[in-house]
User: What shape does this take?
Amino acid sequence: MFAQPGTVLTGYIHYRMVLGVTGKALTSFGSSKEFVAAVRDTLTAHARAYEDAKILHCDVGPANIIITHDGGILIGWGFCRRLLTDDGPGSAAILLDQTKPQGRIDDLEPFLHVLSWVTLRYLDNTMNTLARATYLSKTFDEARIENGIASGGEHKELHSVGDAYILAKLTFKKTSSLSNLLREIAAVFRWRYAEIPEKERHSFTRIQNHMEQGTLLHTALELLMSVSSVAMQNLADASWLLDPLNRHLFPTVE
Assistant: This one.
C-alpha cells in the first residue's frame, strides 16, 4: 500500500534487540499448569513495572508471552508508556474508542483475554468446533473501519456486562477447575462495564436516606453499591488477579 497525497507519515526507528534468554511460544505449553503459571509470572512482572516505574506494557497478548525453563516472561515492550493517571476506559472500551488514554486496568484486562483465548483455542472443552470458532471470532477478532478508524470490542463488552464472557456450561475435559478460574476472574471484570454510574449512585443514596434502615430494599441497594465499590477497587490492583491464579496452581487440601 502506498501513501496517498497529503498523508502525514510517521517516522520510526528500527531497533534490533537480542534477548539473553530463549523460550517457546505461550501456545506451545506442555500442560495447563505450565500455561497458567506463565501467565501468572508475566502478570507479576507487569505489576512490578507499574509499581516500581509506573510503566504500562500496552500490548499484552499471547504473542508477547514466552515460556522458559524458569517460567513465563513478558516481552514486546515496544509500545510501553509511562502512566500519567491510574484511570482508564477499559480494554473493550479501548477498542470501541481508541482516542481515550489507556490506564492500568486496561493493561490488566488483556490477561483475562489471554487466558480465555488460549484455553478455548488449544484445550479440549465441551464446545463443539463450530460454536468454538464462532465464539472466538466474535469475541476476539471483531473489527470494523468507521471514518478511517479501526474499532471493535462490542462483543467483549456485551459478554462482560451480561456475565456471559465464559459460557455457563463450559468445562475443560482434563482440568475442570480451569473453567471456574476463568469465571472467577471474568466476574470481577464484569463490574468494569456494569459499574453503577455516579449519577445513579447518588440517586440510590437519596432513596436510601428516605427509607427505613434494615428494610429489604435498603439492604439490597447498600449491598449493590458495596459490591460495585469493592470490585472497582480490586480492578485497580493486580494482587486480586494474582490470588486466583495462585490458588489454581497451588490448591489447598481441606
About this structure: The longest strand covers residues 65-68. Residues 87-249 form one domain.
